[in-house]
Design goal:
single chain; mainly alpha; 2 domains; two-stranded antiparallel sheet; 7 strands; globular; disordered N terminus
Length: 302
Amino acid sequence: MALSRTFRNVAWVAALALAAGGPMLVGVGTAGGLPETADAAGAGEPGGTGKPAGTVEPAQTAEPAPDAWPDHSAFDELLQRYVSDAGVDYAAWHANAGDRERLRTYLQTLSAAPVSELQERANARPHALAYWLNLYNAVTLNFVLDGYPTDSIKDLGGMFSSPWKKKLVTVEGTELTLNEIENDIIRPRFREPRIHFALNCAAVSCPPLRAGAYVGESLDQQLEEQTVRFLADPRANRVGDNGRLRLSKIFDWYADDFRDAAGSVAQYVAPYLKDYPVDTDGVRIESNDYDWTLNDAGRAGS
């Protein structure tokens, strides 16, 4: 029974990847994704429900009209309220029961959306990508808030299951992990390297969470803004005194995505970095250490 269910889930993810002409690439797993050091941090299953904290089930309401993508305005308002350059004000959000419920209600709306049907419609690509980016970030926030206070999202894992491998949300009847949303749906279907600056893993070294939701109508501009912002941060990316590139480990973990887009990692980042050497051939790239401390605004600078 468990094996047949696994095959059904794989087929469903494949169907999402194929929708609107997307290529089928299922089971990417951690290859090119989060490092084994991140995925190795497991998690115990709290409570007696058999579901990890932060799990979101679809609302028991009528599904939205199949010609309308979910409204992201509620999520946008929450992000504007709690996200700043310092990070996420988890303490204030955690203390506000109404806003925690608003986040869960938003996730239930995404969970109930007929995604496969919507993705088949004309000009669906930017709206579909905005949907999956918002879903990933909202699930991450909900998961952290349910486990707050914590020093790191990795601490919400345990010995046998990492946060990114927990079944945290149900979409069209299929339970999904953060790892599956990113590596089995977003990366293979959209092949857009800038998503790495839009997805937020709730860590200090992660590209900063945007203080607003992604929307299909302006998604390209939003992704470009995220890319410029992250690559302009000298703490994460810079040209060293020795002429070598010092880059976030994101460019190592997902190197293939950037090579596919620009030929090499160096050529991808060149237009965004100040004082970049003109010759990108043979340039040495070194990775900065990755800080998994929670991106908690209340602890910024402490």
